[in-house]
Records
---
Amino acid sequence: MLATSLTAAVLGVEAHLVHVEADSAPGFPRFTMVGLADSAVKESEARIRAALRNCGIPFKWDRRITVNLAPAGLRKYGSSFDLATAVGLLAADGGVSLRHLADVLLLGELALDGAVRPVPGVLPTLLLARRHGLRAAVVPGANHREAAFAPGLPVHPVASLTGALALLAAEELPPPPSPPPPGDGDAPPQADLADVRGQALARRALEIAAAGGHNLLLVGPPGSGKTMLARRLPGILPPLSPDEALETAAIHSAAGLPAEAAVAARPFRSPHHTASDVALVGGGQRPRPGEVSLAHNGVLFLDELAEFRRATLEVLRQPLEEGHVTVSRHRGAFPMPARFQLVAAMNPCPCGRRGSRTAPCSCTPGEVRSYLGRLSGPLLDRIDLHVGLRALDFDEATAPPGETTAAVRSRVAAARERQARRGGGQTLRPWNASLSPAALRRAARPGPDGLHLLRHAVDRLGLSARGLDRVLRVARTIADLDDNEEVRTHHLAEALGYRRCVGDTDTAGEFQEVGEHP
């Protein structure tokens, strides 16, 4: 007999429907699995044999058994096909009557005792089943929580193979149990911005970055507060919208991470500087999301930026500009979302003491040039805010706490609300950092004095056309924080002060003094 069950393969962050065709026929006993299955998929034969035996379910293994995973040209990875394969084999054997194979999606790994173990990628699979109009889905009990992100699709959790068979053999599928809601208590405690002493310019830049979705580079000696500031950015960002939470949860699920973490707090990813380019943008033998996709709708923090390999940093240029990456392999291309805020931190020189008032720098000019030369101009051009930090003196380090995260977050939320109203509700991300050129010209048109200042800045800073656009975007955000519909000269001056502090602090400081905010 021939029977077909439904499951899914997750490649990158997308799920693809897979038909498991099982055929049992007289002949020399042999088990054959085809359809570009990897080793973990082919090993399902041993798991299914043991599970059926230990569950006391009879099966005729003395026949010629063929399992085809269609479409045959799609690579299959992992153990999530076990449940659908076992159910299809039993239906093809004719020993059980299963009424709901044609429109129910099955997902789960089988233990040797017949238990159904959790698998990664359940949420993208549930979204796929909903798009295809399937009647229901059967998932491991441990993955039932992810069903809360896919309302409208009945999801039945099962603990064992026998439970799945009983469910599929019933006259009618019973009402599914309600999934447990995603827990907000899973979020780690947010560090408060009040813990940061001094560094008024860096705090201001952090607020601007949060309000407009801008990328930020912090340059300063060790201990000046770069990492503290970066880790407090998610706390001043607005909470995830329902659409953003679903996007982020699906990516985390595809990567095998807890999907509920996406709604507990905005992602904050901080890969080590030894990370490879594949680890950052994704890919590998089995296409998986990288750090830029795991930071989607959140923050990607690159500490010790100059210690990353230059080739690794250069792969960030496309996602910073376009908000997505496409991993191309010989069997296809896998697009993955990657719209994140980049926050990077680095020392001003190899020893970290360049510009210090207390400890002399021991680096030669050649060593400093080589160190800063690890960052390419095109990459720096895509970072809107460049901020230089200095070491704190005793009075600054022992000063009273500054503004709290809650106070700054309220101003950021108000600025983003102004941007959303100006966007007319026509885009999911109307933030200033993502404005199209046409929208930027309408929203950030400087006056005659502003144009004169920009002309002077282009001559002094050597701004590219992209750099000039990014100055206008930052100025638009500063005006939004000031509750001003017009971009004025002091907004432009402050925005220009945040350009090119790497190796050019004197020129940047010229504009920072002009644009000093109250």
---
Amino acid sequence: MAKAHLACNLPLVSITAMMLGLTAAQNASAQNKISTDGSTTTGHSNQSSAAVDPGPRGGVPSAGGPLPGLSAAQLAFFTSSLARFQAVETVPTGLGPGFNEIACSNCHAFPAVGGSSPTINPQVADATLMGATNAIPSFITSTGPVREVRFVLNPDGTPDGGVHDLFTIAGRSDAPGCVDPQPRFAAQLAANNVIFRIPTPTFGLGLVEETSDLALQNAFSANAHQKTSLGISGTFNVSGNTGTITRFGWKAQNPSLLVFAGEAYNVEEGVTNDNFPFKRDTTPSCQFNPLPEDTTNLTDADPSGSTAADLSSDIVVFAMFMRLLAPPTPATSTSASPTASASSNTTASAATTTVMVASVLPPATGAAASAATSPSKASVASITSGQQTFINIGCAICHIQNQTTGNAAPLGGTQVTSITNFTYQPFSDFAVHSMGTGLADRVTQGNANGFQFRSAPLWGVGQRLFFLHDGRTNNLLTAIEDHASSGSEANQVISAFNMLSSSDQQNVLNFLRSL
């Protein structure tokens, strides 16, 4: 339909024996370490380390533009889809009855449209927009991350794991007569039944979608010996219907960007669509529209310059927006080609260029006080050395630097030469790994159990504000340390990180903030 939008060194534990055979009930009883008040924390970062997260890079965003080499028609579609991605939903266009946000770009906002949580959380203001009567849950704060909530268990003790929307449209001027109370979040928090998720960045995801299962499997298998030596296993999440690799979302639970878009539209904003045509919240007094609310448009009632985009449903447009988004650009590139045998303190002899890594936020909790008064400068030599150390200690075993696309045709069946058989740098194997009790969320999605998460792609991490699946910290050093806990596949790698000198640790942080 045409829409009128508003413009530590821990012992290694056998992951296979401990995690992969878990039942749903065992998943549900796993220890949950997430802060129940929703605050960001410093975890158990190495207190003896002098290394400091320099914070997210300031300056011009390193992402947000279209892929190179697009045709005029493809570029017009991208421009139109960018506008649609920023459209604000209202009840007449499908918002509610339950919702977490009112626009895709409100969640995927930083450092540019398509990213992750912004500096100011829009959920605080949107909770009461247009007269809505929502209370702000304790875990939603103005300077904290955008969050969604999942309940671990149902009242009868069976596994839940689904999203429970933060807000309802009750009280809004465009939802007359709607009476729909919010979930009782305080009671669920007290029962330790709440886990959080934050938005994943969407930059470069078209490249990920264009990477074949075989290419992912080959990249995953290439370092099998190193995995075994460090106690790392991992597996791909797969579709229960097709058996193909799923790769999008915190647990790699979604198989495609179209499914990802359709599900998010329905779950986060309440808008029914061709993929998910029914309301999740069926409160009778809060049903206002014929369903589904988002479908293919048969007439171009609101020309945008791309007829193809105008006639497409929102979820198709959202999926194409993500497919056409270019990947993040690192702050610097080096001529060095690091190898696993090189020394961790290798420096580039002629690298005198400095890269500004100035934070756009106050220093992360626990960071050195000096970071608040002066921006840090990381030399190319430091970044190059940090990349080599990242490889040497084993981080790159899961955060694989390179993946390669196939015969890419992301729009209209037209081949995009610039990304066909293209090697890109997401720093992820897109597999799921058991991360131990410290990060366990006790939620199963597909074949990924309550301990497992997809290796988060690290491209763009230099301008990311919040880390880990629940946004528990804004400190990159803490995020690294939190990879270690009882049963985590990362324990030996984090042990190696903790044995580094403070300068080598700093180099790793500088490298990551350059991405």
---
Amino acid sequence: MLSYLKKLRIITSVIFLFFTSILFLDITGILTKSLSNSVLFFQFIPSLLEFIDTTTIAAIGFLIIIAATLFSGRVYCSTICPLGMLQDIVIYLRRIGKKKKGRGRFNFQPSFNWVRYSILAITIITLLFGNLFTLYVLDPFSNFGRILTHIIKPIIIGANNLISYLLETFNNYSVSPSTFNDINIFTIIFSFTVLFIVILFSVKSGRFFCNSLCPVGSFLGLISKFSLFKIVVNKETCTGCGVCETVCKSECIDSKAEYIDFTRCVSCFNCFDVCPTHGLKYEFQPTKNIVPKKIETENYERRSFLLSLVSYSLMLTGISYAQEKIIEVYKKNKIPVIRPNAITPPGSVGIEHLTDNCTACHLCLSACPTHVLQPSFLEYGFLGMMQPLMNNKLGFCDYNCTICSEVCPTNAIKVIDSDEKKIIQIGKAKFIKNNCIVYTQGTDCGACSEHCPTKAVEMVPIENNLRAPEVKEEICIGCGACEFACPTIPYKAIYVESNVEHLVAELPKEEKIEEKVDYSDDFPF
């Protein structure tokens, strides 16, 4: 009976991994919106932060996870957490690769409680002080999202575009090409570093990342001490063969001491599947504290490995911190655009609300159809790195689009409808006369006005039968279409200056609104 728990766990985990991956890898944008609410409900950190911000029943997924942990241990880590399942895949491949050599086994190792609980304490303290940096750097869901968005998704887009190109040679247009997000060196380096650490830990020590570095794993491990049902050794039938210990990916079973460290057990149920004598059982023991007979293991090699890996990670992180966005240099330079603050997407209320609630999972970046949302570097300060901002050089905020607000798992971007979005003023357009080609080259342009959805940018007559832009700030929503369309180089003649806290724009006069622009038709030129 207990051996079927592993099969049930695998089926459940595959379902969650598949649909969670679809959220980030859907290049069509169709499935992301429809799946986001149901899939994200049980993600621990996004659900927790959304509940703190909204206190609604729709955000109680983390409470259900806590209840499940109190009932039967850390089932979240083995069935719902996407980064945990990524580790399981690596562990499975490791076992296959080393099976013939007899080296694909695990052995019991003492826990690094001083590491895991120190990280958990730092995470909780910084969270209480309103900063999410430590949390989203280590949050498994956010790291999984960044890995898919910045490493896996570009590969899928490239393959899709190659197939589209090959089919077009045969006059088959069934596959549409997709556009790439901007390449952000810092975020790519960070994502690769996390992926490298996760794979290295998985190969070396199984679920060590979950049990020593992940704050969610450490928190649920504390709760699992009080679980109603625990996996324990059945001393009447156990022969001490140690097979269960060799397949324990958490390295928490000591067969010689007849001890299981249930705070590190991720409820994978591999032990039930291999035990030849039914020497393990699920037992109702809500208060019983099981201690080992004697643990003499002192694994200095493991500690040295941890310290050296942390040092290496810090070195990579230091290198990535030093990376800055390189501004491409053109032949003609004029007045640079200096933006005092980053622009945050509609629904985020403002910079403070976004940075206080965002875990930088990058689901909004992955879902954004115009790719205007990009990861920040130091625009929000050191502790706000990788959180989303709007880069109008690479895109613009579509007038009718609200998908980022609909997929955000933490309510950092609040859900808004299309009508509400059209009057949210995230910033105001500013015009730099001496950068505009109407004044510098004496030629007509008007690209900014043509693509402004509210007609906040109007072309007014000047000398020599020319017309130049004039901004009506009261009806401007800061979407960035004007900035994106402006052809001047290297600096724009019109740009959006952020509202630190979003305001409400006035409704434009109906007679001023032109027909809806088809942005898909060679926008802007």
---
Amino acid sequence: MKRPSALVPVIAGFSVMLILMAAVTAIGVNYVRVLSGQLTAIVAERNEKAELATVMRAIHEARYQSLMLASTMHDPFMRDEELMRFSRMAHEFIAARDKFLTLPLDEQEFSLWRHIRDNVKHVESNVETALALLQLDQLDDAQLVIKRRLLPAQETMMAEWQKLVALQRGKNQEALNDARYASTQAQRLTLTLSAGAFFVGLGIAIFVVRLSRRLEKDLFEEKERAQVTLQAIGDAVIRFDTDSRIRYLNPVAEQLLGIQQSRGLGQALEQVMKLFNKEDRTGLNAELVTQTLAGERSFLPPTACLESGQGMEYEVEGSCAPIHTPEGDIMGGVLVLRDVTEARELHRKLLWQADHDGLTGLMNRRAFEDKVSRTMNSKRSNEFPLSLLFIDLDKFKPVNDTAGHAAGDELLRQLSRVMLARIRDTDLLARMGGDEFAVVLTACPNEMAERIAHLIKDSIGAFNFVWEGRTYQVGASIGVVHVPPTWATLDECLAAADAACYQAKQSGRGAVIVHGKLPQEAA
């Protein structure tokens, strides 16, 4: 009789083990997935409620502190800035409140919310009173309202907020207890399934060995791929240990730091890399390493710069994150840097070009009108006299037609420097287009403004422009407008200055016209 092959029971047993393993895996995975989904939804909802309640409470506390701070500020600009911050926090509170109310609330939570809402209304009525007094510069009265009326209402409201936060914390604890109970149940199920899977593991030991070898090979290949990726990315990658000694540099980091990895490995980070704040030249290395080794991810400030080993400075941006062991301990950190010197320089150039005339380097018309409009609309505009000069060059077109556009451009550049030398550092000169210029004189008495206008006109008239052996002279017609506090718009000022300049030009010999009338000294 033929004996059955030994492979038959082996195959049968292996098949049974595979079926059992599949069943254990399917049951465990399904149960854990369902349980995880339920717990995740509960915990996420509770956490979101607690976070929103805490945020709203913090916003109200911050708004009270902001209002108190504003009531002590005698500088109206600083007080306005603080009140703008106070208003922005109101929008942040509304956003958090709307998000909180979209979440499902039980009866206890909704009851607390109604009490808080009533207290908020009471607080806001006192806030409006204090704001009105602040806008009238009645700081003492505003402080009195804050201390006697707002503070008790604020304390009552904050107590209600504390109740809501405490309630959410309690419910979070309940959710945590439920999660612990569910975790215990999952552990029991896992132990039960593991007991069955234990017997399966005996039969697939050889398979596990083979699989481990394959995984080791895959891990090696993955490490090689990761190494190639780090070598290829365009950012500098620097890894260091807990002693702040360099353990890895990719090629971009080598180029940026000016040191090869073979020489940099093992050296202290501060010896190879110097990060500093370009505004005050304070170092950033120590703070960056300290935060990273404390387990915090940190980002470089916008003013961060890097000094390479060759002494070159780069503007950089980047972040530093801690590296953890499988046990959760910190084993070092990885710093990623990006050289943004050219990008930021281009950005600065674009910003400059947007506000300046490319030929003369003066402010252009758009930026000039924006600056003057903001000056006129400021709250302190009525405290200082303001004058506007509109300058139109006479006999400029013949220079352009005779000597060419290159000569005309050079003449405009030289006359720009002449006019800049005749005004104060606090005044603003802009090219409005073609051969037209404008000057705004801030905090300048009317008589001085007119003297400056005559000085500019006389300086332009006396200027000799030499081009290819020939001498050219131009003149200037200037319209002067003394801006009264009753004028409401920039367009009215510009129109009046343009009209005065036109009248000066019609005189045929260049003049300075004030408010559209020729002054005695120019008549």
